């Protein structure tokens, strides 16, 4: 009996000690939060929802309601000016819309990508995801080495050589749309363009033919799941610990594993071909293999590193372009005047021919304007963030070294201050003679960490749009909304379901 009461006393003491330790840790954490408030509260910002959680409840509510968090950033930018602060637990992010500061920070290599966002993307819920690949590498040397090796696969000479694939895959889409038009069916444009961009990246980057317009594949869903998982993982620190989210978290891990295991298979097949002395294309996959160490002494980390870049290109090289195309197709349904102008341009430059050349693309000036305007209103990858290595002062407000600073092209693109009547879709803003937007339009980011695939994406988008405009007219079926879905990247909320007609039947 005495033994049990001794044991019970011991347990009580242990619990008391544990309670005191937790209490001290909690108080210490609260003090640390207070310190971050003192450090940053000279920067204007909206009132916090709570001392501990900062503004997180506002964002979580927007996400629960299916809203776009960037609209809140926009609202706050209008209220609090070119520099404002957002808190979440002990973390502070400063949003900057001032063009001069955007130039100063983004154009310089000295401010790395911020660790809060990019370190998190190394893994998703414990499963390695983008790792140290090109988008997420924070260390300048590590990033620069990769970028140098990748650059040749994006040179204009190499991109010219991709015109055949862009044409061929876009032509498959036209065949599919032709069937849909003949049978008077409805076309889910978002799904269709997703298949095209995924087919293209697989063919030109990895030398693999998927033909997704005619076969089913788990990849589009896996990409969507990873992106959704990425959004929750970055924006909600407690997401994975809530029991109701467990099935989704498992789905995200499996989706990441599927992409990485596919990468491992394709990398190994390519390495075997290289070892057997076979001629292999100088495509992105070959470059990815080159970014790792020499083949003989490849470590497990080198192998993982190659897969980081495989997943990076699999995702970065596809989704954003498909969403841009879908937004553009959707926007044209409510601007018949713009569509008519595009039809005239396409008739003049391409006429009836099927094969679009690289030189034709340069002549499709108005189409370029329309695609740029699409990304102003619908910046499919809305922003980026940097960690300041030194203190800067913006608009008289001091931002300390070490701060995470966010730059948001969606927000700037929709500000009256930068674009008059910002919600109006007006491609003439990007007329060759119009003044260039000054550091307030950057859908591909600016500076050394800007998008490597910008020209690739816009060539591909132009080929698809030019063929679509050449052959078809389309209308949204009733019930389709013009809303945006925020899955980290932005996409049309409804699938841009359209009825499609052959233009030749209309003339
Ligand atoms: C409309 C289409 C696209 C948009 C709007 C877009 C946008 C962006 C943005 C905003 C970034 C910076 C990301 C960040 O700072 O976190 C980025 C980086 C990147 N994008 Fe794109 N992208 C597009 C298409 C593509 C394509 C087609 C590829 C590849 C074929 C690609 C490959 C990359 C890579 C490799 C990076 C990392 C560059 C670096 O840090 O060196 N992107 N893109």
UniProtKB/TrEMBL annotation:
It is found in: Cell projection, Dendrite; Endoplasmic reticulum membrane; Microsome membrane; Postsynapse. Its main location: other. Its cofactor is heme. P450 monooxygenase that plays a major role in cholesterol homeostasis in the brain. By promoting constant cholesterol elimination in neurons, may activate the mevalonate pathway and coordinate the synthesis of new cholesterol and nonsterol isoprenoids involved in synaptic activity and learning. The keyword Transmembrane applies. It comes from Oryzias latipes (Japanese rice fish). One of its GO terms (biological process) is cholesterol catabolic process. This is Cholesterol 24-hydroxylase.
